[in-house]
Design brief:
The chain is an alpha+beta fold. The chain has helices at 9-17, 34-58, 66-79, 81-87, 98-110, 134-138, 155-165, 180-192, 206-215, 269-273, 287-300, 331-338, 343-346; strands at residues 142-147, 170-174, 197-202, 226-231, 235-237, 243-245, 252-255, 259-263, 278-283, 302-303. A hairpin with a 3-residue loop joins strand 7 (252-255) and strand 8.
C-alpha cells in the first residue's frame, strides 16, 4: 500500500496549530524552504498554473498572494521584454533563433558569480563626503520616535528643518519622491549653500520622480551639486535562468554624517497629509551604520543622467526610464553584471572610496 505523501512544512505546521488538543510546541524552522523555491521557479517558468501545480505536487499551502504574483509577473516581463515579444511570434519563420537567444539568456542568468563584477569600480562620492564627527562616533546612541498622528510634530517639517540646517552633506535613500517642496529644499541646499546632495531612488518608482521634474521644467543642469542615482532591490534567480528584481524600500536621510531620520515616511504629498507613518531620529554611534549602508547602496546604484521636458504631462514615462540611466557597459556585460549578484552579495565588496578632488561625472 502506497504511503501518504508528507505535507509541505508550512501546511504541516498549520495543520498542527489547528488541532486544539495538540500541546507540543512546533519547532521554528528558519532555514531555506526548497518547496517554496520549486513553487516560485514554477511560477516564473509557467505562470500561475505552473505554480499551483507545483503547490499541489508538494502538498504545500499557496503562500504567494495575488499581490506577490502580480509584482513578479510585471518584473519578469521587464527583465526580458524582447524575449516576451519573441514568444508572441513563435510561428514566425524569421524568429528561428528565438530558442538560441533564450538559451543564451538562460546561461547568462543562471549563475551566481561573474568575475566581470569585480572589475567594475564603485562610483566615488565625488562631491565630497565628510568624516563622521568624533562626538558622533564616541557618543551614546540616541533615538526619538515621531508619529505622524502627532500633529504638533510634523514629520515633513522635521525633514525640511534638518535639510535647511545641513552644512556638509545630505544623503537620501527614498522609495517614492514626488514632493516638490522638499525637492526645492534640496535645490536650495545644493546650489545656494553648496551642500553636496546624494539621492538614491527606487528604480521602479523613478518614473514618478522624473514626471515631477518634467512638471517643474528641471533638467540635468538644474542639479550641479546633486548626484541622483537609482537602484533596485535584491534579484531572485530561478534555476532555469528567469529572474525578477525587488524594490528599494529603505527610507532614510543622513545629515552631515551626524544624524539620521529613518522610518516609513515617503516624500509625497499624501504622506504629508493623510497617510500615517513614523520616523526615528537617530544620533550617536548608530549613525555610522547608516553611513556604511548608504555607501553600499551608492556603490550598487546607477546614475540618472538626463530628464526629458518635452511633454511635462506625459504618462508614458516607464518606457523612457531606461534611457535615463547612465550606460556603463555593453549589452552583454550589462546582462552579466546585472544578474550576477544580489544587493546582499554585493555588500561583501567595500563601499565607495573616500573622494579626491571633485570631478564631473
Amino acid at each position: 500500500m502506497q504511503s501518504r505523501r508528507v505535507s509541505g512544512p508550512l501546511r504541516n505546521r498549520l495543520e498542527q496549530l489547528k488541532k486544539p488538543w495538540w500541546r507540543e510546541p512546533t519547532p521554528l524552522v528558519l532555514q531555506h524552504s526548497e518547496t517554496a523555491r520549486l513553487a516560485v521557479d514554477a511560477f516564473l517558468e509557467q505562470g500561475e498554473r505552473g505554480y499551483l501545480s507545483a503547490i499541489a505536487e508538494e502538498r504545500e499551502l499557496p503562500f504567494l498572494s495575488t499581490l506577490d504574483m502580480e509584482y513578479m509577473s510585471h518584473q519578469r516581463n521587464l527583465s526580458y521584454p524582447e524575449l516576451n515579444a519573441m514568444k508572441d511570434k513563435e510561428g514566425d519563420p524569421g524568429d528561428a533563433d528565438t530558442g538560441d537567444r533564450s538559451s543564451l539568456c538562460s546561461e547568462l542568468t543562471s549563475g551566481t558569480y561573474f568575475p566581470l563584477m569585480s572589475d567594475v569600480h564603485p562610483p566615488e562620492l565625488e562631491l565630497g563626503w565628510p568624516g563622521i564627527p568624533l562626538l558622533t562616533v564616541s557618543g551614546q546612541t540616541q533615538a526619538t520616535v515621531i508619529f505622524q498622528r502627532n500633529k504638533a510634530n510634523s514629520i515633513k517639517d522635521l525633514f525640511r528643518s534638518l535639510i535647511s540646517r545641513a552644512r556638509t552633506v545630505i544623503a537620501i535613500v527614498m522609495d517614492l519622491f514626488t514632493d516638490m517642496e522638499i525637492l526645492c529644499d534640496l535645490l536650495e541646499a545644493s546650489s545656494r549653500r553648496h551642500v553636496p546632495v546624494y539621492l538614491i531612488l527606487d528604480e521602479e518608482y523613478l518614473k514618478h520622480f522624473v514626471e515631477m521634474c518634467n512638471k517643474m521644467a528641471l533638467t540635468q543642469d538644474s542639479f550641479p551639486n546633486m548626484r541622483i542615482r537609482c537602484l533596485s532591490g535584491d534579484t531572485y534567480y530561478s534555476k532555469a535562468g528567469k529572474k525578477f528584481a525587488g524594490q528599494v524600500l529603505e527610507k532614510f536621510i543622513l545629515i552631515d554624517c551626524d544624524q539620521v531620520l529613518a522610518g516609513t515616511y515617503s516624500f509625497t504629498w499624501l504622506c504629508s497629509q493623510v497617510h500615517t507613518s513614523l520616523v526615528t531620529h537617530f544620533r550617536g554611534q548608530i549613525v555610522a551604520e547608516f553611513d556604511k549602508e548608504f555607501r553600499y547602496l551608492y556603490a550598487e546604484s546607477k546614475a540618472v543622467t538626463s530628464f526629458s521636458v518635452s511633454d511635462p504631462l506625459s504618462q508614458n514615462t516607464s518606457k523612457s526610464t531606461e534611457s535615463l540611466l547612465k550606460p556603463i557597459q555593453n549589452d552583454a556585460e550589462t546582462l552579466s553584471a546585472s544578474s550576477s549578484l544580489s544587493n546582499g552579495a554585493a555588500r561583501a565588496r567595500p563601499g565607495p572610496a573616500r573622494p579626491g578632488p571633485a570631478a564631473d561625472p
